[in-house]
Design brief:
Blueprint (H helix, E strand, L loop, with lengths): L2 H4 L2 E14 L14 E4 L2 E4 L11 E12 L7 E14 L2 E13 L5 E17 L2 E18 L4 E5 L2 E11 L2 E11 L18
Antiparallel strand pairs: 1-4, 1-11, 2-3, 4-5, 5-6, 6-7, 7-8, 8-9, 8-10, 10-11
Length: about 200
């Protein structure tokens, strides 16, 4: 099986609301300005950490997304969202487990799918209330009809993305980003179940 048989690119635009539901004890404050150095009775002290995302944090996230196929002339469209939780293993680095639900607009029949995504995210830049991130992972999508038509009901979803966050308050963040998906059954169900347009 060639790499082209495994990968089908889709472009995803998403928006997300992330709520920190459990803060680590070391992260009781989340200042929005750069750290300052103060002199106190001749001793040099620093303000608390300016990290927005701290090791030990747990979050709840809710997002919506619109996805459009870019390598298929039929241009299937996905619309939906997901609910998930994440845990920060270190400052700025988290692992997310999410349950997506999508409505798939395609050549008849239209399909509805749900699954599980596991994604790692790195907040590589922070300044004030703004942060930038990259993420990547994989998922599984199971639908009530074949996606695409002539394919299978079970597909895999490797994905990578980039985006930005804006801190509304200490525990609430808005996310916006773009992601490239690859949706495929990986040929596990035989050549007959792999649509011809995925083999390019």
């Amino acid at each position: 099986m060639s790499p082209a048989e495994f990968l089908r690119a889709l472009f995803c635009i998403s928006g997300e609301l992330l709520i920190v539901v459990a803060r680590s004890h070391a992260a009781t404050q989340c200042p929005t300005s750069a750290p300052s150095v103060q002199l106190n009775s001749g001793n040099r002290t620093e303000s608390p950490s300016t990290e927005q995302f701290h090791a030990g944090d747990w979050t709840l996230e809710i997002d919506g997304a619109f996805i459009r196929a870019r390598t298929n002339p039929r241009f299937e469209q996905f619309a939906g969202g997901q609910v998930g939780v994440s845990h920060f293993w270190t400052d700025r680095l988290s692992v997310h487990a999410c349950v997506p639900v999508y409505w798939v607009n395609q050549d008849s029949p239209v399909a509805i799918g749900a699954g599980l995504d596991l994604v790692a995210r790195w907040q590589f830049y922070e300044r004030g209330r703004l942060s930038l991130y990259i993420d990547g992972g994989a998922g599984l999508l199971i639908s009530d009809h074949n996606v695409p038509r002539g394919g299978t009901r079970v597909n895999f979803m490797p994905q990578v993305g980039i985006g930005a966050t804006w801190m509304l308050d200490e525990r609430t963040f808005l996310f916006g980003g773009a992601r490239v998906w690859h949706l495929s059954n990986a040929g596990l169900f035989g050549a007959v179940a792999t649509p011809p347009w995925t083999n390019r």
